[in-house]
Amino acid sequence: MVSIARIAELVAEIEDRIPFNRYLGLTDFRIEDGIAYLRLGMRDELVGNFDRATLHGGVISSTFDVIGGVAALFGVAERRLPDSDEETLAVFENLATIDLRVDYLRPGVGDWYEASAKVLRAGKRVVVTRMTLQSSEGVEVAVGTGTYIVS
Fold first, then answer.
1. pTM score
2. What is the dihedral of CA 131, 61, 137, 139, to 10 degrees?
3. For the segment 34-77, what is each residue's pLDDT rounded down to a tens digit?
4. Which residue range forms the structural domain that includes residue 43?
5. How many domains, the chain?
6. Is 141 within 8 Å of 108 (Cβ atoms)?
7. 47 CB-near residues (< 8 Å, 6+ apart)
C-alpha cells in the first residue's frame, strides 16, 4: 500500500509538471490532518485590477480547481489506499472537474496566498470539496466548492 505521505509526494511531482500550474507559481503542496494546502506567490502577471494591484479572479478559480482536485485525490485514497505509485497515478489521471463554484469575498491583496481544501463527501465516483484562499495577512479572500469525478 502507498502511504498518504507518498501520495503527497506524487501529487507535488505531478502538479509541478503541469505548465499552467508552474506559470501560476503554485508551490508547497502538502496534506495535514486531511486538508490539502498549496501556496501562491503574488507577482505582476497575476494582477486583475491594476489600480489596486489585486489578484485576478481567474487565478483564484484556477487555484481552487487545482487544490480541490488534490483534496479529491486524497479523499479517494483515504477510502482505500492505492497499492502502488502506478495505481495512484491512474486515479489522478482519471480525475476531472464536474463543477466549480467560487465566492469572492474580498479583494486579493497580499504578498502570497494559501489555498486549502477539504473533502466534504467522497463517494465511489464523485468527490465534493470545500476550498478557501487566505492572503499573507490572514484575510479570507474567497471560498469555493468543487465537484470532481473519479473513475
1. 0.92
2. -60
3. 899 999 999 999 999 999 999 999 999 999 999 999 999 888 87
4. 4-149
5. 1
6. yes
7. 53, 54, 55, 56
